[in-house]
Design goal:
alpha/beta, Rossmann fold, five-stranded parallel beta sheet, 51% helix, 10% strand
Length: 262
């Protein structure tokens, strides 16, 4: 499953009780895991994660009480059987706020054999309210019985996962720009005012993707303009400038001044 398929599956609201996320790099796998976790706790029935409900906001800020990330105690160590038994016990407890409790296991392919067997028990008979997300660089190190009880999400190595809502804003900005629709640019940029720092950085990446994806239909001037706007955005974000000001600067750089002066 690639990123677009993952986004589509999550949007439908149909979730599995366990996932293995593999491919790409460690940071992208973690972001994919967090996207699944956000969808799992989202209050919306469809179009999840909605990005605006209480649970989505907490998930994006990494402060949701029903989402936990289990990491190895030491970089060169394995996940131990005791750690997985403790996770299994926590998973049996009802969530505090959301409808589901989500447990992300980073470097899941570093579970030793006893730890994997401990996880297998909860994967075979999972609590209805629990979702497990196993992030693995090498899923072949996991037992076949573990793999068979999980939905596998294989990310493209060259692809960095972005929030679909952020990608939608970038797409709308590009479409408004191509139409020379200044009012459309203003409307498309409105959600940016509420973006947190990571989402702002993602937006600049998404703008670059949109630009490169349309480079065959855009003029060299237009391509350069969008790339410069994204570079300027990165500088503002690094300076801890808030989303509202970033949105304003984006509009100022992209707006069609000839149309605006009429």
């Amino acid at each position: 499953m690639d990123i677009s398929e993952l986004s589509s599956r999550l949007s439908s609201g149909r979730l599995f009780h366990a996932y293995i996320v593999t491919g790409a790099d460690a940071d992208t796998r973690m972001r994919a895991g967090k996207l699944i976790a956000q969808a799992a706790v989202c209050q919306a029935e469809r179009g999840v994660p909605c990005g605006v409900c209480r649970d989505c906001v907490k998930a994006k800020r990494d402060i949701h009480p029903d989402i936990e990330i289990v990491r190895r105690e030491k970089e060169n160590a394995n996940h131990t059987v005791d750690a997985m038994r403790a996770l299994r016990a926590r998973a049996a407890v009802l969530p505090n706020e959301a409808k589901r409790g989500v447990h992300i296991i980073d470097d899941a392919d570093f579970m030793n054999m006893q730890a994997q067997n401990a996880m297998l028990k909860v994967l075979e008979e999972p609590p209805e309210h629990a979702v497990f997300i196993l992030l693995a660089d090498n899923p072949q190190r996991l037992l076949e019985t573990v793999r068979s009880r999980c939905e596998t999400v294989s990310l493209n190595p060259e692809q960095t996962l972005l929030d679909p809502k952020v990608e939608a804003v970038a797409r709308e900005l590009m479409e408004a720009y191509v139409r020379r629709d200044n009012l459309g640019l203003v409307r498309a940029a409105q959600p940016v005012e509420k973006f947190i720092k990571t989402e702002l950085f993602d937006l600049m990446t998404a703008l670059r993707r949109e630009t490169l994806g349309r480079s065959g239909t855009l003029s060299e001037t237009d391509v350069e303009r969008f790339m410069e706007a994204a570079d300027s955005g990165d500088k503002l974000i690094n300076a801890n400038i808030r989303g509202g000001y970033v949105a304003g600067e984006l509009i100022a750089e992209l707006i069609d001044r000839e149309t605006a002066s009429r």
